[in-house]
Write a structure and sequence with these properties.
269 residues
Length: 269
């Protein structure tokens, strides 16, 4: 089941990247670049008539270059991946509000009850049975059945929760890579713009600084957009980490309240 889920998630990530590219690139070639080119052309015409005119900033011009397009694609891709993970975590959080063991209040749990408890957990739907809570409960019940030791069952729950936390942390590596790549692409745009501006230095000596200012605009606009997107993406990453950590902690508390605290190694006299 875990392998099938990983395959589905991988296909989702590829699909999300492809859709993000098609959507963003389509908007760029139909709206952003034509509008930016039209604005720049008007500004050149105005400056040709009035050399003292100061070129105005324009939203489309700020976004028009390839670095900004790549940053937006990566940001949407990372957001889609985080949305997938957040939806799965919310489903698991909803499971914490259910009584999976279906035991009367105050009834102690002994080793002789473990088979019935495992049967009840096995009746869960296939997807829900692989969530963190059922896995933690199942592991603790199996450990209690084998050892008849409550402490061993509690240790088993802690082990499952810690492993889940480490797995969730590892799965964020692709998102962290994207959060690192976005400002890096912005700096590439900065280097490209400054290099192109320096290539027109001879024209600046002659008094024509149009090419230099335009290329410097590429340099600073790319960094500007990349940093804004990076700040937004890091905020989403921290929010995702927060709900992941809450899931692990709430699961451990649920198991302690509904299972461990009611276990008895032998019937009460």
């Amino acid at each position: 089941m875990r392998k099938n889920y990983s395959s589905i998630e991988f296909l989702f990530q590829l699909s999300a990247l492809l859709i993000s590219f098609i959507l963003v690139h389509g908007i760029y070639i139909t709206i952003i670049r034509p509008a930016a080119d039209e604005f720049l052309e008007k500004q050149r015409a105005i400056m040709a008539e009035d050399p003292s005119h100061h070129e105005q900033r324009n939203f489309y011009v700020v976004l028009r270059d390839y670095e900004q397009e790549a940053c937006i694609i990566l940001m949407l891709w990372a957001t889609a991946i985080m949305g997938w993970k957040a939806a799965l975590i919310l489903k698991q959080q909803n499971q914490l509000g259910q009584d999976l063991l279906k035991l009367p209040a105050g009834l102690p749990i002994g080793p002789e009850d473990t088979r019935e408890l495992q049967k009840r957990l096995s009746e869960l739907p296939e997807n829900a049975a692989q969530y963190l809570l059922p896995r933690a409960l199942r592991t603790a019940i199996q450990r209690f059945a084998a050892t008849r030791n409550v402490q061993d069952a509690a240790t088993a729950i802690n082990t499952v929760c810690e492993a889940e936390g480490e797995r969730q942390e590892a799965e964020l590596s692709i998102i962290r890579y994207i959060a690192w790549a976005i400002p890096s692409i912005g700096f590439i745009g900065t280097v490209r713009g400054i290099g192109a501006a320096l290539a027109h230095a001879n024209r600046a000596v002659e008094g024509d600084i149009t090419a230099i200012t335009q290329n410097l605009g590429v340099a600073f606009n790319s960094t500007f957009i990349a940093l804004i997107l990076s700040i937004f993406l890091m905020f989403l990453i921290h929010q995702l980490q927060l709900i992941q950590e809450r899931l692990v902690l709430d699961t451990a508390q649920y198991c302690d309240t509904h299972l461990i605290s009611r276990m008895r190694s032998r019937p009460l006299s």
